[in-house]
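Kindly review both lines to help learners:
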Amino acid sequence: MRCPFCAHDDSQVKDSRPTDDGAAIRRRRQCEGCGARFTTFERIQLREMTVVKSDGRREVFDRSKLERSISVACRKRPVDPARIERLATAIQRQIETSGDSEIPAASVGGMVMDGLKALDSVAYIRFASVYKDFREAKDFEDFAGAVSEAGRDG
């Protein structure tokens, strides 16, 4: 594997173990060129998925982008990073097992919304503000009010 520091082509695996959720293998590597250490993750990919954007563009599904979006919504919230990882894994598996090779971005966003709703209400509202394209403070108020009402009812 190419070193991210010096671009040397060879590295040696020093340690290998499964992640906490068992969905990936974490490998500690050491570059044979510069001696730097870095970590890689190996994940199972059932098949290549394409996300269809609202404007019709197509992008290859990128798990890191999904995980980053969830992490941004959860920033400065008491959410364990392992739970973010598990949510991303669950969404990825749901997408991969859907039977379709293409999935609308809106469907992915809906899955994230569902997952965040169960994870953290503030993260849920943060994500919704982008996903639902809130334009004014009133949009936040209305949505947060609905979330608050649902929390009291359920």
